[in-house]
Design brief:
Length: 322
């Protein structure tokens, strides 16, 4: 089969397209021919060696496709089923062996590119609202990178829960997308951000600051959060937040900081199926509009990484095999 391999740690140029052996499904696994493969920030962190990984390896953890064969001891998944997953290994490939217990059925009406690129961000948005933080209806939240993959979905889910949403974006096109997703106020990054957030919240600040940008935004997140509020630091698109003196949380207003990761909110298969069912159900019903902003051929994965890292993307990013 054709696949992308990370040959060594480094920039997008270390992603190489070539031919490798087909995977063979182990007991409990199904073999899936991929239709659409999601490109996520975590793929870039692993590629650069910011998160531990050992080259050479096939990157990617989410995709959608059709089951072409099943291994031994597989119940409930059959050849021909359309499935998607968020924690499958080696997903930048034409064929992927996926544990049957982690393969989620794709509901009718959900396109391949949405199923293949929205689950990781969608389930992240889901646990950010119901898992790592617990904003209540009527609360105001701040969402950085409001036009990004997570940002557009998180904004829509937050509005469905009755939250008031303030987002940040870097440009006019992104501002329009964030507004269309339901953001009540769309702001630009910068030193005045916290002051603007405070003036929109009668001086109080937000109940939760959702920060997937990291190094460049963390200080403003801290300064924008209300007394007893929470900062959910869930990513590092601009780089990791430097070491931090916990005593500052006291002075800033008895704040909580959490640094969650999706894996811990879907490790239990029932929890995965609950979150995936709610998210994909809302997509299938048309209640959540997923913007697949960029399509690339699988062979052009390096270009996809480069665009994601240079912040020129909006919504989700997908690779199409063949
Ligand atoms: P996005 O589509 O949101 O892309 C990142 C966005 O961050 C950019 O488009 C850009 O938007 C903004 N940004 C601000 N500063 C920078 C910078 N210096 N370099 C790059 N981007 C910058 O990505 P995703 O939706 O895929 O992911 C968003 C974040 O969520 C990432 O940090 C990712 O690691 C994290 N994540 C965490 C998970 C978890 O469980 N912890 C799971 C999934 C994602 P703008 O131009 O508007 O500023």
């Amino acid at each position: 089969m054709r696949a992308i391999q990370v040959t060594r740690h480094g920039g997008p140029e270390v992603l190489e397209y070539g031919t490798v052996d087909d995977p063979i499904p182990a007991p409990g696994e199904v073999l899936v021919r991929t239709a659409a493969i999601g490109v996520n920030f975590i793929d870039t962190y692993l590629r650069r060696g910011l998160y531990p990984s050992v080259p050479p390896y096939i990157p990617g953890s989410e995709a959608s496709g059709q089951v072409v064969s099943v291994g031994a001891e597989v119940d409930g998944v059959a050849v021909g089923d359309k499935v998607c997953w968020v924690d499958g290994p080696a997903s930048y490939a034409e064929l992927v062996a996926v544990p049957a217990s982690r393969a989620v059925p794709v509901p009718d009406g959900v396109p391949d590119d949405v199923a293949g690129s929205a689950m990781l961000r969608g389930l992240t948005a889901h646990y950010l609202l119901d898992g790592s933080a617990h904003p209540k209806s009527g609360d105001t939240v701040l969402i950085h990178a409001g036009a990004g993959g997570v940002g557009l979905i998180l904004t829509q889910l937050a509005k469905r829960r009755g939250l008031r949403v303030i987002t940040t974006v870097s440009g006019d096109e992104k501002a329009a997308l964030s507004t269309a997703a339901g953001a009540d106020h769309v702001l630009r990054y910068g030193d005045a951000l916290a002051e603007e957030v405070r003036s929109l919240t009668d001086g109080r600040g937000v109940a939760v600051a959702y920060d997937g940008v990291g190094a460049d935004t963390f200080e403003q997140s801290l300064a924008s959060t209300a007394v007893r509020g929470t900062i959910a630091l869930f990513g590092a698109a601009s780089g990791p937040v430097p070491p931090f003196d916990l005593q500052r949380l006291n002075a800033a207003g008895s704040l909580s900081v959490t640094r969650p990761t999706l894996a811990h909110f879907i490790a239990d298969t029932d929890e995965l199926r609950w979150r995936a069912g709610e998210f994909l159900g809302a997509v299938a019903e048309g209640d959540i509009d997923v913007r697949v902003g960029q399509h690339y051929r699988l062979a052009d994965a390096a270009e996809a990484h480069s665009d994601l890292e240079s912040r020129s993307t909006t919504g989700t990013t997908v690779l199409i095999p063949g």
